[in-house]
Amino acid sequence: MVKRYFAESELIINPDGSVFHLHVKPEYLADKIILVGDPGRVNLVASHFETKECEVESREFHTVTGRYNGKRITVTSTGIGCDNIDIVINEMDALANIDFNTRTEKDTLRQLEIVRIGTCGGLQPYTPEGTFICSVKSVGFDGLLNFYEGRNAVCDLPMERALLNHLGWTGNICAPAPYVVDADAELVDRIADNDMVRGVTVACGGFFGPQGRQLRIPLADPKQNEKIEKFEYNGMKITNFEMESSALAGLARLMGHKATTCCMVIANRVTQKSDTGYKNHIDNLIKLVLDRI
Ligand code: R1P
Ligand code: URA
After folding, report:
1. Which of 57, 113, 202, 288 has the largest CB neighbor count within 10 A?
2. What would the pLDDT profile of 176-225 be if each residue is shown by its tens digit?
3. CB of 78 closer than 6 A to ligand 1?
4. Do residues 208 and 183 make contact, with C-beta atoms less than 8 angstroms apart?
């Protein structure tokens, strides 16, 4: 069989042999990966490592590979948004599954296990500040997955339709329509265990308008959050808003990797309370994920 070749313009490799944005070389990527949004959170995760074998910083992408209880783990910051998840997951998949010398796909899939640790807004009375939510499903208000051919094969199309009907959105708002993807069920069971809420997470293309926050300018749908909080599908409710989980779940499914997102609620949109001291508490979530990954 002829192997697929990836041209220099499609897979950009730096002169030192590292991948374009992450600046990580193939030998430094572990099979177990933790993603965080905030570059400053990388050191908090890595502070639990017994040993560090590499550390690279490039733009918002800060990466450390090391060992925790003997397990080899790579932690990388993605910055904010699904657009950065497209970069990080494609480059990590390339590091794992493309031979950088021949620029061809490797014969066997190397499966990665990816857990995002983030912060989020809670959308239900039972998700107050401090709650840990592990995403069973992610809803993408970002549109990223629609650029990939296999999108329909990995999405929950009936739930997408039910959500769109419920929201009653037509025209420009959130066009193209939201997509819905499952996280890896085995990974969710292991990471969420019995002390995290198993939730449905909406990844938004912004922090303000797309999450129904109105400051000085009005929203296209002022009832957006009220409708999202009320939506129910097969006994599931939407639990939280953040900005990356949909692209992570979708790309991981398309590429054959295992992924989920765990977030700590730092603002509850129903009670209108927030926790600005969350940086002290997120370490508890980090320790749980490090133990369970
Ligand atoms: C917005 O404040 C950011 O916080 C959340 C959102 O997804 C977005 O990235 O996650 P992180 O705390 O991981 O950045
Ligand atoms: N991150 C988000 O994206 N939204 C919130 O409300 C809090 C954290």
Report:
1. 202
2. 889 999 999 999 999 999 999 999 999 999 999 999 999 999 999 999 99
3. no
4. no
Cβ(205) to ligand 2 under 6 A? no
How deeply is 50 buried, as exposed, middle or buried, from its count of CB atoms within 10 A (0-12, 13-18, 19+)? exposed
Q: For residue 242, which atom of ligand 2 is closest to its CA?
A: 3
In a domain, 275, yes or no: yes
Atom of ligand 2 at shortest distance to CA of 121? 6
Report pLDDT for 175.
86
What is the span of the domain harbouring residue 262?
A: 26-292
Inside any domain, residue 88: yes
Integer angstrom CA distances of residue 83 from 145, 191, 244, 279: 10, 25, 8, 25
Q: Which two tokens stand for residue 102?
A: 């021949």
Specify if 279 maps to a domain: yes
d(CA 210, CA 141): 8
- Look-up of token digits 């926050």: 213
Is residue 120 in a domain?
yes
For ligand 1, whether the C-beta of 243 sits within 6 Å is: yes
Give 240-287 pLDDT, tens digit per residue. 999 999 999 999 999 999 999 999 999 999 999 999 888 889 999 999
Q: Which ligand is nearest to the CA of 273?
A: 2
Q: What is the CATH number of the domain that holds 112?
A: 3.40.50.1580
Give the chain's domain count: 1
Residue 155: CB within 6 Å of ligand 2? no
24-49: average pLDDT: 98
